[in-house]
Amino acid sequence: MTQEYVYQFDINGYVIIPGALSPSHVRRLQKYWSANLTAHQLYDVNFDWGDDWRGLIDIDSVYSFLDFVYRSKFRLDHMFCADERFVSSGGQLHHQADMFDEGIYYWVRNKRIHSGLVAVQYAISDIPETTNHFCCIPGSHRANFPVPETYRSLANNALLRHVALNAGDAVIFSEALVHGTFKVKDSGPRRSVFARYMNNHSYFRRPASQREINSLPPTPNHAAAPNAQVFSTSGLTARQKQLVVEPAYARGHAPVRS
């Protein structure tokens, strides 16, 4: 992690880490991909696929950068593989600054970054501009006004920057950045792994295995009962269930009923 990377991330909303994955690591991932992951455009990563996939959780150069951004308090939220057939958001740019209620934001105060969801894209193949590729509006993660619809489009967008990668490179970007997939006619092959990280006090996507809450945390050092007291949720109203029972996550959480 260097001051240059931090400066690039703060100014542009993204930074490229060249050669984050070793050539041998890339070759092993490619081999597994060719043998097992070609039927669909997207696969959620299963860490039982082996050490090469588990290794993507905390690649040293990427980990050290995220460790700085989150001040050592972060977690992996989800990870998936995408090929050239995967195009995000229907070919339009998505997200913008200050989506606080959805866990997407970027803010700096007193030389400390306060960030929501951050994405890492690992290039498992070369991804030139002749292939469907990552693109964005640099600096938009710190914008103070809504994105005009004309800048949501990929066509004739003077603010758009194309990001090409070599196999093994990683691009780390704030999800508050206005970004998307630039779709190229007759795209060449693309293999990328996307890993998204979140503050360790929150989830972005609803966890697949998380249970409904049926006990509140006891008050440390003062509660009469030192352990959490389990209660029945059947007597709660619909609104009370939303306030008590529903687990915490940002994407797709229904507003509390009035």
The helix/strand class is alpha+beta
The level of helicity is 10-25%
The biggest beta sheet is recorded as:
6 strands, antiparallel
Mean pLDDT: 93
State the shape. globular
Order of helices and strands: HEHEHHEEEEEEEEEH
N/C terminus separation: 47 Å
The count of helical stretches stands at 5
Spatial order of the strands forming the largest sheet: 1-9-6-11-3-2
CA radius of gyration: 20 Å
Q: What proportion of the residues form beta strands (DSSP E)?
A: 15-25%
Low-confidence segments, given as residue ranges, are none
Total number of β-strand segments?
Answer: 11
Textual characterization of the structure:
The model has no long low-confidence stretch (mean pLDDT about 95). The longest helix has 14 residues, at about 25-35. The strands form three sheets. This protein has a six-stranded antiparallel sheet with strand order 1-9-6-11-3-2. The chain has a three-stranded antiparallel sheet with strand order 8-7-10, with no helix packed on it. A hairpin with a 2-residue loop joins strand 4 and strand 5. It is globular, with a radius of gyration of 20 Å. Helices cover about 20% and strands about 20% of the residues. The chain has about 260 residues and is α+β, with helices and mostly antiparallel strands.
